[in-house]
């Protein structure tokens, strides 16, 4: 552990103060009744017996699909992952992967739901089912305009399209057009329609979505009370665990002293934690979630150093220090030649050079030492070289943006995006996440990480594009001239409104590429790292859909934080 440097005075804060004090976080009630835990176990068994180990249940395909859909929307998917995987495997094997082509008697709702669930679970299914619902002119049959359930399922399915799947592109616009026209439908159906039109299910942060769906599901006349009770208890239990995690990272953040020492930077540890809950909420990934919150907190501070505080000379020094791995190749080359452990070689040859701090001003020393200590505590001899490399590349990307800002340069959109997906920090977050869920980093694990390039790139691109849409006006006010919107405006001499629409189209394209990368990476199997890549993009929509939810959290985001992290669902009496 490196000793902490003295406190330094900094400029006045640019961003609004945090709404969540350490004392408030420490005061949160984290107990969860033992009787409720026992009830959860009891309900688990009942659900499994009722639906998965009951030969007399005789669920049809569409009923089984709807059950899986309800379980996942209620936030219970992780509890029944094995059974869901087996159910979808059986469904996929019945007719191969051409969803709906042979099932001509099946409804638009059924085949659309089947496609969505299978693709979401990384099955390489075909879009050909859409053609069944078109006439000889390629237009959708008129009767579908009044099939609310089918329209909604088709619309949701269309958001899992690949770029080349034109039929699903048509389906999205057909669904959107006719869902917008609905008016004489029951309140429950309209609730789901409006929710989907605001943001499709596939792009929603899972815990926020689970909280919404529990309320919506409770209003359904055909709601399964077993599932509903389990969902409420499970939600509250996870929330209690998340509060304990939050208290842990809040204490860590207070101990670093960065919020008090670097008053120009955003104090956003709770918002960082909320974001990382969106990336990985499952109870078994406690260490990963806590570690990623620390990473996100450092990214926020370092981003502010490059954006609003540091001079170019100071930023050059800091970037070089983070990039500079102490290369002791000559001293230890014989270790590698003797074919001693590759990871021992990495550990001996590549380490951050802590002596670089002597060339930095105090505020950078504080940041560098805190980052150095945290990454070394979090990593191990196998992962630290991998993590250090990503931090170096992130700082390089930050530095290029700082140079653009200081020179008032607005690059072409192509040049901007080539750097921006790296500066978005998604790669740093996902690389840390990969190392934290894979404690033993083998050479095979490193190869697997290298194969995930497209997953990380398009997840990060979505983080950047969502960020730019939500923060563009505030960044321009601070003098940060380069973002996707301003670059496109200059390239094409168009208004910010036209540029925003174009950036939204880039978001749609990036989602298609990310979805395809996930299917290619997973090939029908479950993979936590691939889920994290999708969830980074989902959290980006949550944070920036209505503005800058990270730099300037509004009432909407505060309500989401309260519902996910602070306020349990009120007790409901089940008979």
List the helices and strands and how they pair.
Blueprint: H1 22-26, H2 34-52, H3 61-73, H4 81-94, H5 108-120, H6 148-158, H7 166-180, H8 187-198, H9 206-218, H10 225-256, H11 258-261, H12 269-279, H13 286-309, H14 312-323, H15 329-337, H16 342-349, H17 362-378, H18 384-406, H19 413-423, H20 426-437, H21 443-450, H22 453-477, H23 484-492, H24 496-522, H25 528-544, H26 555-566
Structure description:
This protein has two domains: 22-26 and 266-565, Orthogonal Bundle (Farnesyl Diphosphate Synthase), CATH 1.10.600.10; 49-231, Alpha/alpha barrel (Glycosyltransferase). Helices cover 65% and strands 0% of the residues. The longest helix is centred in the middle third of the chain and has 32 residues, at 225-256. Residues 1-13 and 326-343 have low confidence and may be disordered. The N and C termini lie far apart (56 Å). Helix 15 runs antiparallel to helix 16. The chain has helices spanning 22-26, 34-52, 61-73, 81-94, 108-120, 148-158, 166-180, 187-198, 206-218, 225-256, 258-261, 269-279, 286-309, 312-323, 329-337, 342-349, 362-378, 384-406, 413-423, 426-437, 443-450, 453-477, 484-492, 496-522, 528-544, 555-566. The chain is built from 26 helices and no strands. The chain is mainly α.
Secondary structure class reads mainly alpha
Return the domain count: 2
Number of strands: 0
Radius of gyration: 25 Å
CATH superfamily of the largest domain: Farnesyl Diphosphate Synthase
Under CATH at level 1, the class of the largest domain stands as Mainly Alpha
Largest sheet data: none
Strand content: under 5%
Instruction: Give the number of helices.
Output: 26
- CA-based shape: globular
How far from one another are the termini? 56 Å
Poorly predicted runs of 5 or more residues: 1-13, 326-343
CATH topology of the largest domain: Farnesyl Diphosphate Synthase
Q: Which CATH architecture of the largest domain is right?
A: Orthogonal Bundle
Binned, the helix content reads 55-70%
* Average pLDDT score: 87
Q: Note the run of SSEs as H and E.
A: HHHHHHHHHHHHHHHHHHHHHHHHHH
């Amino acid at each position: 552990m490196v000793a902490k440097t003295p406190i330094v005075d900094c400029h006045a804060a640019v961003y609004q103060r945090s709404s969540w004090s350490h004392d408030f976080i420490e005061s949160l009630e984290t107990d969860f009744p033992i009787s409720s835990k026992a009830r959860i176990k009891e309900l688990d068994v009942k659900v499994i017996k009722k639906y998965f180990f009951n030969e007399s249940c005789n669920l049809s395909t569409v009923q089984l699909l709807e059950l899986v859909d309800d379980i996942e929307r209620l936030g219970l998917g992780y509890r029944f992952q094995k059974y869901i995987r087996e159910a979808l495997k059986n469904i996929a094997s019945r007719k191969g992967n051409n969803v709906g082509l042979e099932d001509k008697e099946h409804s638009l709702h059924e085949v659309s739901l089947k496609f969505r669930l299978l693709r979401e679970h990384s099955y390489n299914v075909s879009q050909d089912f859409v053609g069944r619902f078109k006439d000889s002119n390629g237009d959708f049959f008129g009767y579908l305009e009044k099939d609310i359930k089918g329209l909604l399922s088709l619309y949701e399915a269309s958001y899992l399209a690949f770029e080349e799947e034109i039929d699903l592109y048509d389906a999205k616009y057909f669904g959107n057009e006719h869902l917008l026209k609905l008016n004489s439908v029951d309140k429950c159906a309209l609730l789901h329609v409006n929710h989907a039109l605001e943001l499709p299910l596939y792009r929603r942060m899972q815990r926020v979505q689970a909280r919404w769906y529990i309320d919506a599901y409770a209003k359904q006349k055909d709601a399964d009370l077993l599932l509903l009770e389990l969902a409420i208890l499970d939600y509250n239990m996870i929330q209690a665990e998340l509060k304990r995690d939050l208290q842990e990272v809040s204490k860590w953040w207070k101990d670093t002293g960065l919020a008090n020492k670097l008053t120009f930077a955003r104090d956003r540890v709770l918002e960082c934690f909320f974001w990382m809950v969106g990336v990985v909420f499952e109870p078994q990934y406690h260490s990963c979630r806590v570690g990623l919150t620390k990473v996100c907190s450092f990214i926020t501070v370092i981003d502010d150093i490059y954006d609003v505080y540091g001079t170019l000379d100071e930023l050059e020094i800091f970037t070089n220090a983070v990039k500079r791995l102490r290369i002791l190749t000559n001293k230890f080359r014989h270790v590698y030649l003797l074919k001693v452990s590759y990871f021992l070689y990495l550990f001996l040859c590549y380490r951050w050079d802590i002596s670089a701090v002597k060339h930095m001003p105090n505020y950078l020393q504080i940041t560098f030492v805190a980052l150095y200590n945290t990454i070394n505590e979090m990593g191990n001899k196998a992962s630290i070289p991998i993590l250090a490399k990503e931090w170096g590349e992130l700082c390089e990307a930050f530095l290029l943006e700082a140079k653009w800002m200081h020179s008032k340069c607005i690059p072409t959109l192509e040049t901007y995006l080539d750097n921006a997906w790296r500066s978005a920090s998604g790669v740093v977050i996902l690389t840390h996440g990969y190392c934290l869920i894979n404690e033993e980093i083998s050479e095979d694990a490193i190869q697997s990480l290298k194969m995930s390039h497209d997953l990380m790139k398009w997840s990060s691109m979505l983080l950047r594009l969502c960020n730019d849409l939500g923060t563009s006006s505030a960044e321009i006010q601070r003098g940060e001239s380069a973002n996707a919107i301003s670059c496109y405006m200059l390239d094409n001499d168009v208004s910010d409104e036209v540029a925003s629409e174009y950036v939204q189209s880039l978001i749609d394209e990036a989602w298609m590429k990310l979805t395809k990368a996930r299917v290619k990476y997973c090939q029908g199997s479950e993979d936590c790292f691939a889920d994290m890549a999708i969830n980074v993009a989902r959290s980006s929509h949550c944070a920036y859909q209505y503005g800058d939810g990270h730099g300037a959290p509004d009432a909407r985001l505060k309500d989401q934080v309260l519902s996910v992290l602070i306020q349990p669902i009120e007790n409901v009496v089940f008979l």
